[in-house]
Design brief:
Length: 336
């Protein structure tokens, strides 16, 4: 058993491990090449989060999906670089919107250089991703464009909030399918498509990726409440401080509306107040950490991970499928 990729994923086949490790090393090199500029400062800013590390979750999925075709096909590594660059670009923008101070255990770009330069650096990464994508053909460009549209739409829907009469939980899950699920789905799709895998297999892996992406983000929601900054690499309760209601808060609202318990209403009142105050923020975090709404959000994470795992039953049994199944377990484990 060998540990590889995010969350300590175990790969039990030496050939698969070698393919994945070689692919991820090539992606790392490709990321550094893609973030170089003739202007040294741009290189420094663009490589800020690349060099900070990260799970490389999306490139790993590209590599595993490629095992269902020719894993040495020329488009696999570039497509993995594209999805990771796109993801990194969204992090620069997200940190500006959230006024986050820490990302991957280092000061966020907006703290280090200011909001304007952080946004522009994200734009630079999008531009570099598009440049690589152009060499992968019009179909790849179309797929990435559709995913990016869904990603941005999800972000807009999150900012706008649910329509009157819309269930806030369902609205939020729609947001996650766009914001996170779309790019994770494309990671699986690119890996399968670039490897020449059968169209049916490509479709199954795409659906798996979207469900896994939602589970992954729900696990992040739980971690944002339950973990400290050492575990998560970013400031806990960032969404709380910004007034963004992630799933634990939405489940709390749901329980308060259904049962009207005084302690639930008091916690909601605290959450509705000024959480830029450190003491109030710490009190709100502490209240959510012991509330059953957090456990309910964990169960939601498990449900989406189980749905992703169920999709894989349509694939032929192989070590790559086993690794994809283990990723479902690893995502759930992150959420406790």
């Amino acid at each position: 058993m060998t540990v590889v990729g995010p969350f300590g994923l175990s790969v039990r086949d030496q050939a698969l491990e070698a393919d994945v490790q070689t692919g991820l090393a090539a992606v790392e090199s490709g990321l550094l090449d893609a973030t170089k500029s003739e202007v040294p400062f741009i290189t420094e800013a663009a490589q800020h989060l690349v060099r900070a590390g990260g799970k490389r979750f999306r490139p790993l999925l590209v590599m595993l999906a490629a095992q269902f075709g020719d894993p040495d096909a020329p488009g696999i590594v570039p497509s993995a670089v594209v999805v990771e660059l796109t993801h990194l670009a969204t992090l620069y923008h997200d940190d500006v919107m959230d006024e986050a101070e820490v990302r991957r255990g280092v000061p966020s770009a907006n703290v280090r250089w200011g909001n304007s330069l952080a946004v522009l650096t994200g734009d630079f990464l999008f531009a570099r991703a598009s440049h690589i994508l152009a060499d992968l053909g019009p179909e790849a460009v179309r797929i990435q464009a559709e995913a990016f549209e869904r990603l941005v739409t999800g972000q807009i829907l999150e900012t706008a909030g649910p329509r009157d009469g819309r269930d806030p939980v369902e609205h939020y899950l729609d947001v996650l399918r766009g914001k996170t699920g779309s790019l994770v789905a494309v990671s699986c799709r690119f890996g399968a498509m670039m490897s020449g895998a059968d169209e049916r297999i490509t479709d199954v892996l795409t659906q798996y990726g979207e469900r896994l992406g939602v589970a992954f983000q729900l696990a992040d929601d739980v971690l944002d409440i339950a973990s400290d900054s050492h575990e998560s690499g970013k400031t806990p309760g960032t969404d709380l401080r910004e007034g963004i209601a992630t799933l634990p808060v939405l489940r709390l609202q749901e329980q308060a509306a259904a049962h009207g318990r005084p302690e639930d209403l008091e916690l909601l009142e605290l959450l509705a107040g000024d959480l830029t105050d450190d003491a109030r923020h710490a009190e709100a975090l502490a209240g959510l950490r012991v509330h059953s709404a957090l456990e309910q959000a964990r169960r939601d994470t498990v449900r989406y991970a189980q749905e992703a795992r169920a999709m894989l039953a349509a694939l032929p049994e192989c070590t790559a499928r086993a690794a994809l199944e283990e990723l479902c377990d690893a995502v759930v484990h992150r959420a406790g």
